[in-house]
Amino acid sequence: MYRKVTNHFYRTKFESKAFDDETLWDVFTKYGGSARDCYRLAARPEQVERLEISLKYVAEDLPGPMLIGDLYRGTGASSRNDELLEAFSQMITITPDSDRRPLIILTSPHIADLLYKTVLKHNVELFWQYFNQFSSEKQSYASAGWMWENRVISGELERAGNRVMQLERLKIDNRSDPPSTEDTHTRLDQIHLPFSLIFNHSDENPLADEFIRFTNNPVKAALFLPGRRNQATFNAFSISEDGLVTLFQPTVTQTHSIKTSKLDFIWDAISKAQGLATGQAAKKIQGLYPTETKKWRLVFCVPRRVQTYWKHYQVINYQGKQPKHQWEKYIEQFVVAFNDTQGNSNPHYA
User: Fold this and answer.
1) Pairing relation of β-strands 2-3 and 19-20?
2) Between the N and C ends of the chain, which has fewer C-beta atoms within 10 Å?
3) How far apart are CA 328 and CA 178, in angstroms?
């Protein structure tokens, strides 16, 4: 659906360029909920490009979270501080904490991505300052989660060296008795890093094309990353040399339900790829579907500070819809804990 924004100034009628609902939604998810800004940016794509350039320029001067918090609380008011507030207003905003005091949060996942790629990936100390700040209050967990997703994907999956990631299998039920010898033997699983190939995809059809490209390559492990934050899929997933699919779900919380829409997205892309492929490629793609004997692995990537809470299977959430597939039969769940402090080695790597 396309829309026009109409304004009147005295007797003069002004109409903006038409834009579609998808463009408006994309702007809203990236830059926050200001109606004026969203409609303005959706109607004028050239302003989005200028805004992106401006935000990256401003991000290079990002101060620490304590200074940002003081600015929003009005501490040390000055013209310079007013300029800083204006510069960072589209990246950082405030929300009340449990005591109704102002708490800084990031505007959106897109802003978290931008800050990470521009400055926080290179300034480790500043990254942990913001991560610890956002992790300290329930109201800012989402901002901590967005930052954690960037660190896991960029720092642990994309740029990994030659190493083995050890996975801990979650328990299906809530039994508190110690595992048997057999349970202990099967409790750990592994992922060998780095991935030989990395594919970036957008929607379902491009992902189907990437599956075909993957099957046409010599047998190698590949990492698949979504091109947009608001896609209905996982933050990352991989396919091993023998066709085993592993889904990665970074999270900073103590529990995290599994949305079946994300699983369905990948299944449907495999189906599209199978319809397009021929010969040996079609056979390889057929082998990507999960079965009861070759399940997909779902790996929760958590900070070490919440590792003790991650012992049992998480709830599969069909979101009130008729199930397309019985996912309880097709996935097994694991957890891997990464260090969440600066400068420590990670014992989960071999």
Assistant:
1) antiparallel
2) N
3) 24
Burial category of 174 from C-beta neighbours within 10 Å (exposed 0-12, middle 13-18, buried 19 and up): exposed
Which DSSP category does 341 fall into? S
> Amino acid identity of 226?
P
pTM for this prediction: 0.85
The residue among 318, 314, 348, 319 whose CA lies nearest residue 331 is: 314
> Tens digit of pLDDT for each residue in 142-183?
999 999 999 999 989 987 678 899 999 999 875 444 444 444
Rounded Cα distance, 200 and 130, in Å: 28
Query: How far is it, in rounded angstroms, from Cα 112 to Cα 219?
Result: 35
Six-digit token pair at 256?
């995290």
Is residue 332 within 8 Å of 298, Cβ to Cβ? Answer: yes
CB atoms under 10 Å from CB of 47, counted, come to: 14
The span from the CA of 237 to the CA of 132, in Å, is 27
- Interhelix angle 279-286/260-276, rounded to 10 degrees, is 160
Residue 339 burial (10 A CB sphere; 0-12, 13-18, 19+): middle
Q: Are 222 and 199 in contact (CB under 8 A)?
A: yes
Those residues whose C-beta lies under 8 Å from the C-beta of residue 7, and which sit 6 or more positions away, are 13, 14, 15, 16
The alpha-helical segments, DSSP class H, found in the chain are: 21-31, 35-43, 45-59, 65-73, 79-88, 109-115, 124-135, 141-150, 181-185, 204-216, 260-276, 279-286
C-alpha dist (Å) from residue 138 to 98, 104, 135, 143, 254? 8, 12, 7, 10, 12
Return the closest-CA partner of residue 127 out of 340, 348, 349: 340
140: left (phi over 0), alpha (psi -120 to 50) or beta: alpha
Q: Which residues contact 202 (CB under 8 A, 6 or more apart)?
A: 226, 227, 228, 231
41, 42, 44, 47: CA torsion to nearest 10? 30
